[in-house]
């Protein structure tokens, strides 16, 4: 992945961090049209920029979305996720009144859980072998 994407540098570190995030609607309600998904992509792109992250890829279906996010090590992924879900839910409700029927008694749009997977780098087996083969001070 390092060949596909530039390594970033901070004050005290060099990094290349990507996360695959998946958010599912509450009760797997089939909420989203293509228009909703385009809107959500832009909202989530804006939220990522506020966190100094980049939304590299976005896609979804009527009841879930996938995001590929490049983020710096100073960002707590859980805080980014909470902001992405909260802001997108609030803005979608504001700008698309027809989705309010999925917010039963003011419930959230998104399920309380989410998937987050780290992306890129060598497979764990290769890293394990590399570390195991390092010379120990003797």
Helix-strand blueprint:
Elements: E1 8-9, E2 14-15, E3 18-24, H1 34-50, E4 54-61, E5 64-70, H2 77-95, E6 115-119, H3 124-132
Antiparallel strand pairs: 1-2, 3-5, 3-6, 4-5
Question: Mind explaining what this structure looks like?
Answer:
- With 138 residues, the protein is an alpha+beta fold.
- The protein has one domain (8-132): Alpha-Beta Plaits.
- Helices cover 33% and strands 22% of the residues.
- The protein has three helices and six strands.
- A four-stranded antiparallel sheet has the order 4-5-3-6, covered by helices on one side. Strands 1-2 form a two-stranded antiparallel sheet.
- Helix 1 (34-50) packs across helix 2 (77-95).
Features:
single chain; alpha+beta; four-stranded antiparallel sheet; 138 residues; two-stranded antiparallel sheet; 3 helices; 6 strands; Alpha-Beta Plaits
Brief synopsis:
The protein has 138 residues and is α+β, with helices and mostly antiparallel strands. The chain has helices at residues 34-50, 77-95, 124-132; strands at 8-9, 14-15, 18-24, 54-61, 64-70, 115-119. The strands form two sheets. Strands 4-5-3-6 form a four-stranded antiparallel β-sheet, covered by helices on one side.
